[in-house]
Amino acid sequence: MATTVDLTALRRDIASLSAGHQPAAKRSAFTFGLDTIDRVFRHGTERGAVHEIFADAAGDAGAATGFVAALALRAAPGQSLILWLEEDFAAQEHGFPYAPGLKNIGLDPQRLIIVRCPSSQDVLKAAADSLGIRGTGAVIIAPWSNPKCLDLTASRKLLLSAQQTDVPAFLLRLGASPSENAATTRWLVRSAASQSSGAGALGHPVFDATLIRNRQGMTGHWILQWESEDHVFQQIEPISGDVVPAPAYRPPQTRKSGTRPY
After folding, report:
1. In the prediction, which pLDDT does 116 show?
2. What are the pLDDT digits (tens) for 14-24?
3. What is the pLDDT of residue 171?
């Protein structure tokens, strides 16, 4: 049974892990490293902001999660720590972050602190506090579905915390549908076929990404390949030919009556 997050202990642990790192210089924006995307943001993708990423369907949860990890790697300066705050129910539905998989996408598990929370309210409380902890490079926030507590007021609080500390907040929305909030950008991510490098080897991760909200103005749609070694995106064209069947997955489930209410 999960317990409420001890934020004091979390602060202490991060401060200890960050002791050997010099504080990174403040930056107002990060880039995708790809001109076709970067030019839609007049001043770069804001670092001190809330960026919301949705899986288009339940079977796209892995793609959305990988896309969030890639964005966190682009946004977190140097070897700064990345916090991953997720609700227990989200982990039950889509599994726990897997260290070899994280390495495969270019994220060193030693940079990652994962906190599992019993409710969406606890996830948001931990997120608001974590954004202000010295040594944090990015915060990934993963509540399940559309909790009532994640309303316009709560998202504005997250945005204010991100702006004050210049730490990006990535809202990973699994089993959810878009609603009004204070997110600066909103992405809809689908799975896409990767291109093998030959001899049956696995290809780089590929994302079908649509920017459906951009408070700086322009939106767009891209098929993006993630270069795990160099932490950069490359734009590719959709692959023609037969579609490989997607693995089986369960549709989003509602909470049981005995679980903790929002």
Report:
1. 92
2. 555 444 444 44
3. 97
Q: For residue 245, with 0-12 CB atoms within 10 Å meaning exposed, 13-18 middle and 19 or more buried, which class applies?
A: exposed
Tell me if 182 sits within 8 A of 151, measured CB to CB: no
Cα 90 to Cα 142: distance, rounded to the nearest angstrom: 7
Per-position DSSP letters for 45-60, written without gaps between them: EESSSEEEEEESSGGG
d(CA 5, CA 125): 9
* Cα–Cα distance, 120 to 142 (Å, whole number): 8
Domains of the chain with bracketed CATH: 29-194+203-235 (3.40.50.300)
DSSP codes of every residue in 25-44: PP-SEE--S-HHHHTTSBTB
Side chain identity, residue 42: R
- Listing DSSP states for 49-95 in one string gives SEEEEEESSGGGHHHHHHHHHHHHHHHS-TT-EEEEEEEHHHHHHH-
User: Taking all residues of the chain, what is their mean pLDDT, rounded to a whole number?
Assistant: 82
Q: Helix and strand tally (H, E) in the chain?
A: 7, 11
Q: Give the tens place of pLDDT for each residue, 174-183.
A: 999 999 999 9
Looking at residue 145, its pLDDT comes to: 92
Alpha-carbon gap, residue 87 to 123, rounded angstroms: 6
* Residue among 39, 143, 16 at smallest CA distance from 87: 143
